[in-house]
Write a structure and sequence with these properties.
By secondary structure, the chain is α/β, with parallel strands linked by helices. 39% of the residues lie in helices and 11% in strands. Helix 2 runs parallel beside helix 7 and helix 5 packs parallel to helix 6. Bound molecules: pyridoxal-5'-phosphate. Pyridoxal-5'-phosphate binds next to helix 3.
Length: 280
């Protein structure tokens, strides 16, 4: 049998090992147990662990805890942002059926947009990219000059999962804001590797995932301030501001928070080691 030491794991963009502090926060809460929605002491302790995790994740992206909805990962956060924005915009104005996106998005984004195209009448506007897979802000401006009054949302990732290209999100956000169209950002690969600020002008929703920065698989978050209208993605107990029903994973949230806090304190050395193209 091959010894572990003979293997070198190099696929950290796919998933990376849990950090010891994340593992500790996770096991501590798993041992403690409790449903964070319960009003008794067991529930309140779980709620406390959950809220500390939410706060740490929020802090890592420059947001307020109340703006963070916990999810089962980056895929769910992307689905929730795109479907939620599309449906809310369409409900307010049925003419808003255009989804503007880059062709280098993760499947969690492209498949969601294509599902909307097939089943809910969306028209997809694909933005051109250069040889590094970078979106030129001018091409977004030209697209919006043409179709802004029919746009439901724009979705562009922050950092690419295959080649590491960093998109000019600040400029993209400014352009979306100037046309008054919401922007969803998939920041799953960016969060923990380069500075991510969810409060940049124009960002409506932003997806992150724990297992890319030393947290557990199966935990993520969507930045979604209350001012942004989002149709719920699941119905039930009304957890997570009625947008995402279901018992919240307190252990996962605690571990995500611990990982985010640890990695983001250590950010400059990590990010300079990344082979990213383009600029943030
Ligand atoms: C850019 C990007 N978006 C979304 C996801 C999906 O995240 P998760 O694995 O947490 O569902 C990934 C995962 O590889 C990713 O790299």
């Amino acid at each position: 049998m091959a010894r572990m030491s003979e293997h070198v794991y190099m696929d950290h963009a796919a998933t990376t090992d849990m950090l010891p502090e994340a593992l500790e926060a996770f096991t501590e809460q798993v041992r403690r147990g409790g449903n964070p929605a319960s009003l008794h002491s067991g529930g309140r302790a779980a709620r406390m662990a959950l809220e500390i995790g939410r706060e740490q994740v929020a802090l890592g992206m420059g947001a307020e805890p109340v703006e963070v909805i916990l999810t089962s990962g980056g895929t769910e956060a992307d689905n929730m942002g795109i479907l939620g924005l599309y449906r809310a915009r369409r409900a307010a104005d049925p003419a808003r059926t255009v989804v503007v996106l880059s062709p280098v998005e993760h499947h969690a984004v492209t498949e969601t947009a294509q599902w909307l195209e097939k089943h809910e009448g969306a028209q997809l506007e694909w933005l051109p990219v250069d040889e590094n897979g970078r979106v030129a802000p001018e091409s977004l401006r030209e697209t919006l000059e043409r179709v802004a009054d029919r746009v439901a949302l724009v979705t562009v990732m922050w950092a690419n999962n295959e080649v590491g290209t960093v998109q000019p999100i600040a400029e993209i956000g400014e352009i979306c804001a100037s046309f008054d169209v919401p922007l969803h950002v998939d920041a799953v690969q960016a969060f923990g590797s380069i500075p991510v600020n969810a409060h940049l002008t124009g960002i409506s929703t932003l997806a992150v995932s724990a297992h890319k920065l030393g947290g557990p698989v199966g935990v993520g978050a969507l930045y979604a301030p209350r001012t942004v209208k989002l149709e719920p993605s699941s119905y039930g107990g009304g957890q997570e501001r009625d947008v995402r029903s279901g018992t919240v994973n307190a252990a996962g949230a605690a571990a995500f928070g611990a990982a985010a806090e640890s990695v983001l304190t250590d950010q400059p050395p990590r990010s300079s080691a990344w082979p990213v193209c383009g600029t943030a």
